[in-house]
Design brief:
The complex is a heterodimer of chains A (277) and B (126). By secondary structure, chain A is mainly alpha-helical. Helix content of chain A is 74%, strand content 4%. In chain A, helix 3 crosses helix 9 and helix 4 packs across helix 9. Chain A starts with a helix and ends in a 5-residue tail after the last helix. The mean pLDDT of chain A is 84. With 126 residues, chain B is mainly α. Chain B has one domain. Chain B is 83% helix and 0% strand. Chain B has four helices and no strands. In chain B, helix 1 runs antiparallel to helix 3, helix 2 packs across helix 3 (72-101) and helix 3 packs antiparallel against helix 4. The chains are: A mainly alpha (277), B mainly alpha (126). The interface between A and B is large, with 58 and 59 residues. Chain B: It comes from Paenibacillus azoreducens. Chain B: It holds the Pfam family DUF1634. Chain B: This is Membrane protein. Chain B: The chain crosses the membrane at residues 24-45, 73-99, 105-124.
Chain lengths: 277, 126
């Protein structure tokens, strides 16, 4: 019974995670701790597994349908992995409270930016950044919602790279996929279309999470009784979500994304101010 | 968008990469899912995890021998390990495809990612 309930929650997490590029941890962790009374250690272990499952499950469709920008993903992965190592190092040195607040505010900033941006499914005119041209980051994808091939340029490569480094630090510190920062770096800074941003964020998150998953496994945080059903459910959910997302309007995705982003931001600020204790 | 034609050309070049990565990813995901399902089925048939109490194996030798003896929790964990390895496999395959396409810049970029990933694995264990 327990396995079946976990499986159902995991399917939902996989669908939401793959559409928003957030990995599914935002649903799996609270559901396991609040609904099933799972310890936070085992919930985080299952959350890491759900990030990888969302990433691999949705990447099959997103890559095949050429929504994911592999080059952007690979290039930015340098920043996130180095950031993750940095985060693991400074984790023991500084109190994460200040970082929680800084990153929370950064998310609020990007949410406001996303609200202001009234762009629909068409990209606003973006100058191709010289570094983006050199790295061949531009691309195009077929949008099933508007039934159109959409070409796009890539702007502000350095800004995006910097935010990705920050996203990596957050991953290393908190052991999360930090998909919200990844989507922000690509959508707000580099001006990629939202669908390309969430698909590429999904792709990248698995790589970042895999680096820490091994450690969690050997430490004994990954309980097969919980993580097994989570993995299967999320894989199924992510496969479904990857199909749904392509048919959704970018505007709809944005309207779901912004409240979720604000929620994560406020939670981080709340935690940073020590109000949760 | 004056260089639209060059974007189109790049797209056809990276199409191969994408299809190859997607195909191998599917193989990895299906194998890991099958192993996890096998473990869960064994768990329900045998009615036990194969280990006393709430214990579950979490060292590699223990998981390996448990899997050979078809202990349910060990089999599930093996499936989870295979799942964890799929993103690493994804990066490794991308290197191979970029090599085949002669895209030196991305062979270097992707190799850097793989090296950092391996370093972080090593650091994580310490």
């Amino acid at each position: 019974m327990f396995s079946l309930q976990v499986l159902l929650i995991a399917i939902l997490a996989g669908i939401v995670g793959s559409i928003l590029g957030l990995g599914g941890g935002i649903i799996v962790t609270p559901a396991l701790t609040l609904l099933f009374g799972v310890s936070i250690e085992h919930a985080i272990g299952a959350s890491i597994i759900s990030v990888i499952a969302t990433s691999s499950g949705s990447a099959i469709a997103y890559i095949r349908d050429r929504i994911t920008n592999l080059r952007v993903g690979m290039f930015l992965e340098i920043a996130t992995t180095i950031g993750a190592i940095t985060g693991a190092f400074i984790g023991g040195l500084i109190a994460p409270n200040l970082l929680y607040i800084i990153f929370g505010l950064l998310l609020v900033y990007s949410a406001i930016n996303m609200i202001k941006k009234k762009k629909g499914d068409h990209q606003e005119a973006v100058e191709m950044h010289p570094a983006a041209a050199k790295l061949k980051l531009g691309g195009s994808y077929y949008d099933k919602a508007v039934e159109q091939q959409i070409s796009y340029n890539v702007g502000n490569v350095y800004g995006g790279f910097g935010v990705m480094y920050g996203a990596g630090i957050v991953s290393g510190l908190l052991g999360i996929g930090s998909g919200s920062f990844k989507v922000m770096a690509m959508d707000v800074f580099m001006k990629l279309p939202l669908k390309v941003s969430t698909a590429t964020s999904n792709f990248m998150m698995g790589v970042t999470a895999a680096a820490s998953a091994g450690v969690y496994l050997l430490r004994g945080s990954i309980d097969p009784h919980i993580a097994g059903p989570v993995a299967l459910g999320v894989l199924a959910g992510a496969t479904i979500g990857a199909q749904i997302m392509q048919r959704m309007k970018s505007k709809t995705i944005r309207m779901i994304f912004i409240p979720v982003l604000l929620y994560i931001a406020l939670q981080m600020i709340y935690q940073g101010m020590g109000l949760d204790k | 968008m004056s260089d639209n034609s060059s974007i189109q050309k790049d797209n056809s070049q990276i199409q191969d990469v994408e299809l190859a990565v997607s195909r191998w990813l599917r193989v990895g995901v299906l194998i890991s899912a099958a192993v996890i399902i096998l473990g869960l089925i064994l768990f329900f048939i045998q009615g036990s995890s194969g280990y006393p109490g709430d214990y579950y194996p979490h060292s590699l030798p223990e998981i390996f021998t448990g899997t050979i003896h078809m202990k349910p929790y060990a089999v599930i964990t093996t499936g989870l390990i295979l799942l964890i390895l799929t993103p690493v496999l994804r990066v490794a395959i991308s290197i191979w495809v970029f090599v085949r396409e002669g895209d030196k810049l991305y062979v270097i970029i992707t190799s850097i990612v793989l090296i950092i990933l391996i370093v972080s694995f090593a650091l994580g264990k310490a």
